[in-house]
Amino acid sequence: MIKYASIIRIAGAAAFAAAMASAAAPTFAFAHEGHQMECSDSSRNAMKADIQAMPDGKSKTTAIKEMQAAQDMIQKKDMKACAAHMHTAMEAMEK
Predict the structure, then answer these.
(1) Roughly how many angstroms between the first and final C-alpha of the chain, as a whole number?
(2) What are 33-86's pLDDT values in tens digits?
(3) Within 13 Å of residue 56, how many CA atoms lie on the same side as its CB?
(4) How do the residues of the chain divide into helix, strand and coil, expressed in percent and rounded to 5?
């Protein structure tokens, strides 16, 4: 009976993990596929964390520069330009 209960727990945990992954995947795919990134603090912080996790190289350098340009545009209250720079940073991350 103990083995049966363990199997049930493991199966339940696997089902839960699969459900969470399937719920998160469309959001992630939508954000990257459509490049619908907004210039919010949370979006910028998420991208900065992703950039920091990248290996050093040209793509990372480009993404860092674009995120700095996006920050500069926020200070100028130009959200359209900020979004454009974040889009370019995201493209650099995908290379």
Answers:
(1) 51
(2) 455 578 888 889 999 999 999 999 999 999 999 999 999 999 999 999 999 999
(3) 0
(4) 80, 0, 20
